[in-house]
Amino acid sequence: MAGLFISLEGIEGAGKSTLIQKMIAYFEAAGKEVLLTREPGGSELGQKLRSIILNAEEKICPAAELFLFLADRAEHVESCIKPALAQEKVVLCDRFIDSTVAYQGYGRGMDVKQLQMLNERAAGGLKPDLTIILDLDPEIGLARANARNKAENLTIREGRFEAEALEFHQKIRAGFLALSKEEKRFFVVDAKQNAEAVFADVCKKLQSFL
Ligand code: TYD
Questions:
Q1: Amino acid 156: pLDDT
Q2: pLDDT at residue number 154
Q3: What is the model's pLDDT at position 40?
Q4: Which residue among 65, 103, 134 has the greatest number of ligand 1 atoms within 8 angstroms of its CB, and so is best to mutate?
């Protein structure tokens, strides 16, 4: 398939949104058409699923949570990502398969190998060409995320994972770092740096894809 598929991963508050805006400008300046999308919630069905999944007041058991993320992914890949790649677009996806392994696997304790098989099924075998992991100490990330949620009034509506203890986020960070050693598509960036330095690191990597 033509096009370029990049996913962005990391714990809460690692600075994905800021980086993504800079990446969009970078690709557009190079004459590329960009689709910015996210999980959960990238498709029409996904938007409905997102409001259920991330609502901290909705009681959902871990298996149901997993299958909601996978349902979101299956629809998203089929209805949005694959068509955009076929049109040679650059697809920037805020979270993808690796969030399931990090959050439901390393975070919730589900079997990582099984999750990787389910991911493959849900994504129809599609994997990103490049996955950027913004690596950050969760103490810093959570403080940033809480400040943002407060400013945007998101405390309850989308707070399911922010509400988890620090230890949960430490497991997720460790999960992303373990994953990064498994495949060549990963690129880990030190997200403690300021936004400009993070983007400069990412740019060096992106050059090889243009
Ligand atoms: P979101 O508000 O998009 O978080 P962020 O701004 O940090 O990207 O919420 C997505 C949340 O869902 C985030 O906490 C990670 C979690 N998640 C999973 O647990 N499993 C998954 O497969 C995906 C895609 C996300």
A1: 47
A2: 63
A3: 98
A4: 103
* φ, ψ dihedrals at 155, nearest 5°: -50, -45
103 lines ligand 1 (CB under 6 A): yes
Q: Which has the higher per-residue pLDDT, 179 or 152?
A: 179
Atom of ligand 1 nearest to the CA of 107: 19
Q: Whose CA is nearest to atom 6 of ligand 1?
A: 12
**Nearest CA owner, ligand 1 atom 22:** 100
Q: Measuring CA to CA, how many Å separate 107 from each of 30, 83, 113?
A: 38, 32, 14
Which of 65, 152, 161 has most ligand 1 atoms within 8 Å of its beta carbon, as the pocket-test mutant? 161
Burial 23-33, CB ≥16 within 10 A → b, else e: bbebbeeeebe
In this structure, which residue's CA is closest to atom 7 in ligand 1? 12
Residues 6+ apart with CB under 8 A from 83: none
Instruction: Say if ligand 1 is within 6 A of residue 50 CB.
Output: no
Q: Which amino acid does the sequence have at 4?
A: L
Q: What integer pLDDT is reported at residue 37 of this predicted model?
A: 98
From the number of C-beta atoms within 10 Å of its C-beta (0-12, 13-18, 19+), residue 157 rates as middle
pLDDT tens sequence across 60-116: 999 999 999 999 999 999 999 999 999 999 999 999 999 999 999 999 999 999 999
pLDDT for the residue numbered 158? 66
